[in-house]
Specification:
By secondary structure, this protein is an alpha/beta fold. Helices cover 59% and strands 6% of the residues.
Length: 507
């Protein structure tokens, strides 16, 4: 058989002849294969455009994060401070720009985390091809795209945990100079979600295990890193003390003692991509071997905390177990591929080549489900977005003044995100009720001067809505007008009555 002319493309470049479409595709694919950063950047760009274009509304977690960022506090009633601070770059923008930023920041964070999985797997296994296999295996799960969108803290953990593990291994085994960088990433991860302390506790135990590890305690880089970590988490500790440890109490409010099987189902749904990858590796005839020390350390960090988490959610019903397990599942493929002998990496290339196809299949399914409005996914809560705009227009038509405050029912919180003026929520902090969204330092005199729009419970007309629950908190405020308007949660749903109360501005 005649071999293809390897110098044909070089000759074409020298003569100025244009390359064919397939050659350009091959050239770009080879460039992406050399640089995993290009692959994850392309992944994030595609998913951002698709999600922001087709998803009818952002998850409610976006509304929470936006309001937390406007408060600018060192903590929130559900999470530490980084979730709220992540929305700072778009304060002052409208709902459409906020939505685009929400999706872009999510998938940018996921892309950074995927790149972290590649570097972690490369350090644990010492083989680039195995690192690619670990990163591409994330396409087997929706935890990095569809499933993660409703959780405003998990995408940050997906971004930070792989790098935190990589920096810990590098600092412990390679050079102490990595300790300050590890402290920055670990501090940010801890200020994203308190579950990070489960990993940090396992890391602390590992540093106590051998005399060689304990010698790091005397190194200046370790002490600098410790100071950085304390500086990042100390403000949140102060905030918790001044807010009745609301974030911890919020978890208790969500669960009740009850033996259940949700933890087992959640574990299976989160871990099945890693199990699938292990099965595929065995199918091609590759046997697992004892992993290197670095991989053993990573496994000792990731696996032991899973046991108490699963036990806790087996004894207590409530909460979302999948939300707790997703970040663990993202980092586990890096440990799994480290159990493959590097000499067998070439035999796994066939699996790695097909994993992007699995990612395309997930993307295609996502597009079809939203475009075809299957189970109302293409119209979910779009009525709230339309109502936010129309209610602000009604306010401005009545008073010719900007809408500054909204409140009363849960629907009103969506207006803070989707109403063009981004009004504030008519809710102050209360240690008794611990609202997850509130307005810091809200002043009753300012509310009286600018007025407020009260949104009643959907399905209830003004004859039955008195707004007494909200007005009891604000003695000097009074509803000056009421109006029943048609409302629907979803774009194609039949309208139901919605009572709107107007507190006229006195300025």
């Amino acid at each position: 058989m005649q071999k293809p002319n390897a110098s044909a493309s070089d000759t074409r470049r020298l003569t100025g002849a244009p390359a064919s479409f397939l050659e350009r595709i091959e050239r770009h694919a080879s460039a992406i294969a050399r640089f995993p950063s290009r692959y994850v950047a392309l992944y994030a760009l595609i998913w951002t455009i698709v999600s922001a274009s087709l998803d009818p509304t952002v998850p409610f977690d976006a509304v929470e994060a936006f309001n937390w960022s406007r408060n600018g506090e060192w903590g929130t009633p559900k999470n530490p401070w980084l979730v709220g601070f992540s929305m700072w770059p778009v304060l002052g923008l409208g709902g459409k720009a906020l939505a685009w930023y929400w999706y872009a920041s999510h998938f940018a964070g996921v892309a950074i985390g995927m790149l972290g999985v590649w570097h972690l797997a490369n350090r644990l296994s010492g083989e680039r091809r195995l690192a690619w296999l670990a990163m591409l295996s994330l396409h087997l799960s929706g935890a990095i795209n569809v499933d993660i969108l409703p959780y405003n803290d998990n995408y940050l953990l997906v971004m930070l945990w792989p790098w935190m593990l990589w920096l810990f291994v590098r600092a412990l085994l390679d050079s102490p100079r990595f300790w300050p960088a590890f402290a920055v990433v670990a501090g940010l991860a801890a200020m994203t979600k308190y579950s990070t302390f489960a990993l940090l506790g396992a890391m602390f135990v590992i540093t106590l295990w051998t005399p060689a590890a304990r010698r790091h305690y005397r190194h200046p880089a370790f002490l600098i890193g410790l100071a950085i970590f304390i500086a990042l988490i100390a403000p949140n500790a102060v905030w918790l003390a001044h807010h009745d440890f609301a974030a911890f109490r919020w978890v208790d409010d969500q669960i009740t003692p009850q033996v259940n099987a949700r933890a087992l189902r959640g574990a299976l749904s989160a871990i099945y991509p890693v199990a699938t990858l292990a099965l595929l590796i065995r199918i091609v005839g590759v046997r697992f071997a004892r992993p290197p020390v670095a991989a053993q350390i990573a496994a000792a960090i990731l696996l032991p905390p899973l046991l108490p988490i699963l036990l806790y959610f087996s004894l207590y019903n409530g909460g979302r177990i999948s939300e707790w397990l997703q970040p663990f599942a993202v980092a586990l493929p890096a440990v799994l591929v480290a159990c493959v002998p590097p000499s067998s990496a070439a035999r796994l290339q066939r699996i790695a080549r097909w994993l992007p196809a699995a990612g395309l299949l997930v993307l295609a399914g996502y597009v079809v489900v939203l475009s075809a409005n299957i189970r109302n996914t293409g119209q979910k809560f779009s009525g709230i977005k339309a109502a936010s705009i129309s209610l602000e227009q009604r306010w401005q038509a009545r008073y010719e003044a900007p809408l500054r405050y909204v409140g009363h029912d849960h629907v009103a919180t969506w207006l803070t995100f989707y109403a063009p003026g981004n009004p504030r929520l008519l809710m102050r902090w209360s240690e008794q009720h611990r609202p997850n969204i509130y307005t810091k330092h809200i002043d009753e005199a300012d509310v009286r001067a600018h007025g407020a729009l009260l949104v009643g419970r959907p399905g209830q007309s003004c004859r039955r809505e008195s707004f007494t629950r909200t007005l009891a908190q604000w003695p000097t405020l009074a509803v000056s007008a009421r109006e029943t308007v048609p409302f629907s949660y979803h774009g194609d749903a039949s309208p139901i009555p919605l009572c709107v109360g107007f507190i006229a501005p006195q300025r």
